[in-house]
């Protein structure tokens, strides 16, 4: 009789995603489920194995020594399955696997994908919005568009190209400003309005310090409280609905500001992070890489200049 004593595949996939990304949040993002679901799969897997393969690490988890050994082996199995599937269902066009930060993917680049396809007719674009970083050694991505608040560690064989350092600003719906009987130009409005967060209050704290604003008792309460929305595009959507003030960079809200759906609170010039493009050093000068860089150069320009360029 044919029998295999394998753990549930869904639990192994969750463990593999955590092992590759190093984060519950990123693993959940990659699998399109909630962190709670990933945690449940991991608990079931540990119970099935009878061995501790994970240990707490802050708000997330890390692999134990046994977990590292186990992941190294099952990762090979998933790679083999992936390679076999790709051979069986090989696309007619060469895939271009493009990983991208979700905010810029949804708010800026999604509508411009047809232009990238036109530049690269021999390629099939695989667009993957995610907070996780690809495993370059396993060939998970051909390019990565990222947003980094600090310098990232240097990786062998990977070149990172800085694309733009956008201004970050607080934005809100005009209706919210009206309810507070304030003018959008008044920065003091921030101390009266609720704040919308992505994952934590860290970005708000960094922005307040960079803007030279005081962090008083009310500000501390806003840093600690409120709903966490994970992604910039969700925080911006909540701000449009009048739920509070969100922090956003200029590339993500240019259209909403121009149409009046959002207004900037105060007028500051704070630049917290940088958009960049990561490529394999050996592929920087390929046709696909040059086309991608040119496309991003156009995409990460003020929309007025983009429209003028298209008109000409």
Describe, in plain words, how this protein is organized in 3D:
With 312 residues, the protein is α/β, with parallel strands linked by helices. It folds into 3 domains: 9-88, Winged helix-like DNA-binding domain superfamily/Winged helix DNA-binding domain (Arc Repressor Mutant, subunit A); 94-165 and 273-311, 3-Layer(aba) Sandwich (D-Maltodextrin-Binding Protein, domain 2), CATH 3.40.190.10; 168-264, 3-Layer(aba) Sandwich (D-Maltodextrin-Binding Protein, domain 2). Helices cover 45% and strands 18% of the residues. It has helices at 9-21, 24-31, 35-49, 65-88, 102-109, 113-119, 174-179, 202-211, 217-224, 232-240, 250-259, 287-299, 303-311, and strands at residues 54-57, 60-63, 94-100, 123-129, 143-148, 158-164, 168-172, 195-196, 245-249, 263-264, 274-280. The strands form 3 sheets. The chain has a 5-stranded mixed sheet, with helices on one face. A 4-stranded mixed sheet has the order 8-9-7-10, sandwiched between helices.
Separation of the first and last Cα atoms: 71 Å
Number of helices: 13
As a percent range, the share of strand residues is 15-25%
Question: What is the CATH superfamily classification of the largest domain?
Answer: Periplasmic binding protein-like II
Helix content: 40-55%
Order of helices and strands: HHHEEHEHHEEEEHEHHHEHEEHH
Query: Which CATH-level-2 architecture of the largest domain?
Result: 3-Layer(aba) Sandwich
Overall geometric form = globular
Structural class: alpha/beta
- Give the rounded overall mean pLDDT: 86
According to CATH, what is the topology of the largest domain?
Answer: D-Maltodextrin-Binding Protein, domain 2
> What about the largest sheet?
5 strands, mixed
Uncertain runs: 304-312
The strand count comes to 11
Total separate domains: 3
**The top level CATH class name of the largest domain:** Alpha Beta
- The largest beta-sheet arranges its strands as 4-3-5-11-6
Q: Rg from C-alpha positions? A: 22 Å
């Amino acid at each position: 009789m044919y029998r295999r004593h394998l753990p549930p595949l869904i639990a192994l996939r969750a463990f593999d995603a955590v092992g590759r990304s190093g984060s519950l949040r990123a693993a959940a993002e990659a699998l399109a489920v909630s962190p709670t679901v990933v945690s449940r799969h991991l608990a079931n897997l540990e119970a099935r194995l009878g061995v501790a393969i994970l240990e707490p690490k802050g708000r997330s988890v890390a692999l134990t020594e046994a977990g590292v050994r186990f992941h190294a082996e099952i990762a090979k199995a998933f790679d083999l399955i992936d390679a076999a599937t790709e051979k069986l269902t090989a696309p007619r066009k060469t895939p271009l696997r493009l990983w991208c930060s979700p905010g810029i993917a949804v708010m800026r680049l999604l509508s411009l994908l047809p232009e990238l396809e036109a530049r690269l007719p021999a390629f099939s674009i695989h667009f993957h919005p995610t907070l996780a970083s690809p495993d370059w050694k396993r060939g998970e991505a051909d390019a990565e568009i990222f947003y980094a608040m600090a310098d990232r560690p240097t990786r062998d064989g990977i070149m990172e190209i800085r694309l733009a350092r956008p201004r970050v600003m607080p934005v809100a719906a005009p209706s919210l400003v009206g309810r507070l009987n304030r003018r959008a130009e008044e920065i003091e409005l921030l101390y009266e309005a609720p704040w919308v967060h992505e994952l934590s209050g860290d970005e708000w704290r960094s922005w307040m310090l960079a803007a030279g604003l005081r962090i008083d008792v009310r500000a501390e309460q806003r840093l600690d409280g409120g709903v966490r929305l994970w992604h910039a595009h969700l925080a911006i959507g909540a701000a449009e609905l009048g739920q509070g003030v969100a922090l956003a960079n200029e590339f993500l809200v240019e259209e909403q500001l121009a149409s009046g759906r959002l207004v900037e609170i105060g007028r500051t010039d704070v630049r917290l992070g940088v958009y960049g493009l990561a490529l394999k050093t050996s592929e920087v000068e390929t046709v696909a890489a040059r086309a991608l860089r040119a496309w991003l150069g156009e995409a990460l320009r003020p929309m007025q200049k983009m429209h003028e360029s298209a008109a000409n």
